[in-house]
Amino acid sequence: MKRIIELNLILIFISLTGGNLYSQGNAICLDCHSDYTLEMEKNGSTISLFVNNSIFMQSAHKKLKCVDCHKGFNPDEIPHKENITPINCKNCHQAPFEKHIFHPQLVMANGIGGSPDVNCKGCHGTHEVKTSESPSSPINFLNSTNYCGKCHTNEKEAHLKSVHYVQLQKNNPNAPTCIYCHSNKLTPNWKLDMVILKKNQEKLCLGCHLKSTIGQSQFAKSLINYNSSVHGQAITHGNSNAAICTDCHGTHDLEKASSPNSKIYRTNVPNICSQCHLPISQEYKVSIHGVALTKGNPDAPTCTFCHGEHNINPVVYAPRRMFSDNHINFDVVMRTKMVYCVVCHANESMMKKYRILTTNQAHNWLPELSTHYETVRCIDCHSSYKPPSLSHNILPPSQTIKKCEECHNKNSVLMSTLYKHERAISRQKYGFINGTLLSDAYVVGSTRNVILDSLSLIIFGVVIVVLLLHGFLRWYFYRGK
Amino acid sequence: MRRIYLYPLWLRIWHLLNALLMLLLILSGISMHYSATSSLLFPFKTGMLIHNICGILLTINYIFYFIENIISGNIKYYIPIFKKLMSDLLIQTKYYLFDIFARKPHPFEINEKRKFNPLQQITYLGVMYFLVPIIILSGWALLFPELAPDEILGMGGVWPMAIIHAIVGFLLTIFMIGHIYLGTTGEHPSEYFQAMITGYHSVHNKEEEIISSKIDEKTEQAYNFSHIFNNPVTIAGGIISVLTFILIIILAIIDFFRENPNPQMSTINYIILPIILFMGIILMAIGAILKSRSILKGNEEA
């Protein structure tokens, strides 16, 4: 900076003393270099030596002499210098890397030579270099997408569709540019621990969407509990596999949840969760809910309906009367989490829409309804789960298993109640005599017991063997007489 | 030999019906009890229907028997003489274990006064007036579970009924097998079966039998079964059988109270030990045959 001021002072002095040296200095060069056919051979390739003065005069460097950058050039000799060295921007711009932290390769390089992603002119250009105020400057936040996109074409393509880019187009001063986000250490090129990168990312997103100084964002309501959610906790505890914002929402291409292309659009939610929770997601997709979702049922629950989005336990509002009308104890279903099933399946108008019976109608065959609701969870019968793990494969009603024996067999008191109930139902159905004779409600296996079975078989065996031998001996000795 | 009319018509009809129903009940019961996902002898539903119908018919048959047995006075044959019971049972057991092989006459002669030997008396009494009523009542409790008590000692009312029904069923099955086998111990194997059809029992005179059986004095020793069974192989087999049987029972009881079942112990107890038990029993017979052969051979040489 000091040097620039110094330089400017000299220039001002020169112009004040009436000397026209500065423009003359460039004019000498442009005598030749304004000719657009001017070329030279270097390393077997032809290089244009043309300088468009009108572009240069609009650049940030318009007040500089050619020789300020092209140091040691002698206009009388051709070539002007024995060994033409690359221009070192760092001679004037002494601390460029603090401003270029968004580009890790650049920070790690020295700014001269190398591939376009590690030298200055790769992005800023040569004679056309602009000030940050200029609307066509790459530093201007509106331009970074196009500018970075020169190399990062895939990212640019994705970003053009994103909700962040839409906001940029609307000149929203809070919309993030490439540089805004990438000024944080987010990418693997930083060669940092994954957890640190992820934490930086999380901090960046939450910086706007949760702790915005402009006023709370519309997402803050559910994000406020993000850190206490299972994903938030996992990253806090250093789990590098933990899902952070971008794992679900995407990075450059993030779109609003209402957009069908969004990664978090209703029908895409199971896919995004399956990135980590693959088996569960597969179970869900073949479940009746998963099938309904793919068919486009707008009420079919996705992962986030039950599990929440940023936080884990948001309960969908349902009037308490709906629970009492269905003989369901609200506190119990809250504890067993079955409240998520009930809020839809006890909702008469919603169920009517899809011709599904409400919880009450579907279970009218079940005696002691409220007791069953308190002790048996919906998924105990309606999913194909193997205890103790929960299945997301909720079955269609036709495949629902009446797993009555599962409880009623383990506990002999419950077993009796089930057996009695089945008999009574059988008699109701087939009449007294047939119902008694034909009922197949015997609690199969109630008398099965390894000890009883084994001992009975051993004793049967002993009796038969002893009697056979007895008979054989009788026959053997009779024969002798 | 004389023939006496011991089994009146009502008794024979009851006995035949009882036998058929019991057989069907045992077969369908075994089929249902040991059925897994696949059916054993009958499909489960068929087994259930057979069992239910036969059970109801057996109840009617039993009520008929119970009443008729008292009215006709037939019940007197079931009452043993309790004073001599132990020694009488010992005599009868000894007969089945030893003397029967020598074709000696039954120790308790059957006539109008005594239809059953003491062992029969005590067994039939237990079966007809203890086990059968229990199995009938528990069966009806399973048919009408709402009549069963809600709880018995903290257990549901149905489970104890089912367990009792199954255990008594096993005991009656064992009785049935033994009963049919001992039916062959007449003069001819078919004699007692014929008697249960015609009603007439043949009484054989002891002198008649002595004449008919030409027992060689010298070879009598070869048929003295308390002597024949007294050989190292039979005794070893006997000890093995008894010890293994006791061991099986003890291990089963331990198994019952064990928190975590041990599959290795189950294999030993329910597969390996029973094999040893059967081998022990077979050893007993082999020993007896070998001993009797060696005696006969010695006789011939002498």
Overall outline of chain B: globular
Give the uncertain stretches of chain A in residue-range form.
Answer: 13-24
Helical amount of chain B: 55-70%
SS summary, helix count of chain B: 10
Strand order of the largest sheet of chain B: 1-4
Please, what is the CATH homologous superfamily of the largest domain in chain B?
Transmembrane di-heme cytochromes, Chain C
The end-to-end span of chain A amounts to 134 Å
Question: Which percent range describes the beta-strand content of chain A?
Answer: under 5%
Radius of gyration of chain A: 40 Å
Rg from alpha-carbon coordinates of chain B: 23 Å
Helix content of chain A: 40-55%
N→C terminal distance of chain B = 38 Å
Q: Biggest sheet of chain A, strands in spatial order? A: 1-2
Oligomer: heterodimer
Q: Give the percentage of residues in beta strands of chain B.
A: under 5%
Number of beta strands of chain B: 4
The CATH topology assignment of the largest domain in chain B is Fumarate Reductase Cytochrome B subunit
